[in-house]
Amino acid sequence: MKSVIRFILFFIIPIALFILWIGGYFSPRIEPGYAKEEVKEVVKLPTVKVTSQKVYRYYQIDGSVVSDNNAKVATKLMARILKINVKEGDYVKKGQLLAVLDDSEIRQNIKEAKAGLEELSKAREEALSGLKGAEAAYQFAKRTYERFKNLYRENAVSKQQLEEIETKMIGAKAQVDAIKAKLKQLDAKEKQVRAKLKYAQIMQSYAYIKAPFDGVIIKKMNDVGDMAAPGMPLFVIGDKNLKFISMVDESLINKVNVGDTVDLFIDTVGKKYSAKIVEKSNSIDPMNRTFTVKAQLPQDSSLKPGMYGKMRIKIGEEKKILVPATAVTKWGQLDAVYTVDEDGVAHLTFVKTGETVNGKVEIISGLKEGMEIVASDVDKACEGCKVR
């Protein structure tokens, strides 16, 4: 019995007391709940409540600036290019001389044609002079024949004499007819030479390449010394009426219409334009499942055909949480804001950001409506700092 008491007294009871001590039974008990965080420092900063805002949804696509009317300027001559007066990007006026081709062969043809006309003119003068004399001789022979014919009726002259006079009259008439035939030949020849001259002059005009309308040189296809060929373009000219063309996904065929206003961003000039859609294709391209839209660009000398840009089309509305851009800070590669609890203590909260809308940043995740955040001067905030 004494051994049992000794066992309990020196073994069981010490072990029980040790277990109770380890479990904190003999220590003061702390009531369940949240311990207040110790405030590191007090920094007064502006705060703002997080709210959702209604914003427009946009569809953004690439596109380029194009001329409303493009013309490929070519020639009908096979000739060497002697001179080019413009370069790509130059603005030109209607009728302005763009290039000059070698027209030496044509000038020779024109010279020969003019010389031929001079010869024909001299030949006509000679023929007309001869015709005048031949007609006079014919009229004299005709009167003589009439007189002899009357005398023959009166038996005053012999038949032989009458026939001799008649033969002379017929010869004079043949001379007149021959000269008149020659004049007709000269007229026909003159028409041929004049047609040749006119054709040569027209062909010579093709040696001087001129702008068909006011516009800009989009592309220069040749250089001085190159051989120009009939029908092969030397220049591509676009007029000053510029449009922006884009290929829009077919899912928006009923959401984009002529008259809608779109935003255009031309990266090259760093400008934004508000423009109206003036053309829309109602057919879908089966290759890329898109349709074409064109928006009218304003007159701006800094815009050139071929410039790259982006078109932004308004397609609907939605609610988004937007916070001031000054509220967002970088924590390494992550975005974060400082949320403020009920006691005015700041806590670093990581967020996922989206696009920037009117100077505010979209928060995709990490914040909820009604939360309070530090609005600016976030570089002065810290985890656990009291900001209000």
UniProtKB/TrEMBL annotation:
Location of the YknX-like C-terminal permuted SH3-like domain: 323-387
Domain Multidrug resistance protein MdtA-like alpha-helical hairpin: start-end pairs: 130-200
Keyword Glycoprotein: no
Sequence ranges assigned to domain Multidrug resistance protein MdtA-like barrel-sandwich hybrid in this UniProt record: 70-235
Top-level taxon in the UniProt lineage: Bacteria
Keyword Coiled coil: yes
Positions of transmembrane segments: 7-26
InterPro entries: MdtA-like_BSH (IPR058625), MdtA-like_HH (IPR058624), RND_pump_MFP (IPR006143), YknX-like_C (IPR058637)
Stretches assigned to coiled coil: 117-196
UniProtKB keywords: Coiled coil, Membrane, Transmembrane, Transmembrane helix
Similarity comment: family membership: Belongs to the membrane fusion protein (MFP) (TC 8.A.1) family.
Protein name stated in the entry: Efflux RND transporter periplasmic adaptor subunit
Organism: Persephonella atlantica
Organism ancestry: Bacteria, Pseudomonadati, Aquificota, Aquificia, Aquificales
